[in-house]
Amino acid sequence: MTKHTHHRALPVASKLKFGIMLTSFILVAEVAGGLLSHSLALLADAGHVFTDVIALSLSWYGVRQAERPASHGMTFGYHRVGVIIAVLNAISIFAIAAVIFYEASQRLGQPPEVNSLLMLTVAIVGLAVNLLVAFWLREERRSNLNVRSAFWHALGDALASIGVILGGIIILLTGWFVVDPIISVLIGLIIILAAWRIFKEGLRVLLEATPPEIDVKKLVDTLGQVPRVRDVHDIHVWSISPELHAMSCHVLIDDLPTSEAAAIRQKIEDVLRQQYDIEHSTVQMECEQCSTNDILCKLRIGKRGDKGST
Questions:
Q1: Domain encompassing residue 136
Q2: If you average pLDDT over residues 59-75, what whole number do you get?
Q3: Residue 127 class from Cβ within 10 Å (0-12 exposed, 13-18 middle, 19+ buried)?
Q4: Residue 218 belongs to a domain with what CATH number?
């Protein structure tokens, strides 16, 4: 018996597109400003802004893809397209960080002169835009994981912009140009942290790992407290996308009429949705003990025509 309920995309696509345009403008401005001012810190911050553009774009893409209906060829829809793109983009961000570290090592010995005034100006504009994007998305972040991720990316880049501003002030007051590559290394570390989180989360989804916020043993215990449920086993919990969880399981119940079994199934689905945010569940009801009652399903690869064991 199955339940097919999916998240409905929130009407935030236009806000995300606005955020993408603003952040892309800052990306171009910081790249140009970093090249003209010879500021590696500004270029490093541009790398961080690039991660923000990715986050906003993936959020927009995720909202749009979630609206596409499932088909016979794509029975779960297109949610994982954005996950694959996120993993590939995380790998590219690692490469950007490596370039930043290399350039910083070259500049630490003989730091070039930096136009601190231009560096300050561009960083202040970047800070203002990132705060604007965060403010623009503040309401929707509460109900959409994609938007929440983009929101915190914007705030994180605002912090990086503050670092560039402080560096520009120090250079302007003291002439210590070595501050620029030092700040660029710190921003590079922030970029790696953001990329690692994206990569790890995407990889867990592609490996169909249990969502980190769900404790399978606790979930089984909770379902076992539903009246007339005797056992829960052969359980799978995975994510179709980071914000869309799914589960399948076998549930052993008392020998009851079909109408009463349906009420138990509905209660189980309500518990899964309300307590564990699992919107897509497949529950196989049983009134006789299965050949195995292990919590986790044991799979084997058999020859065609063989019946796989669970």
A1: 2-206
A2: 76
A3: buried
A4: 3.30.70.1350
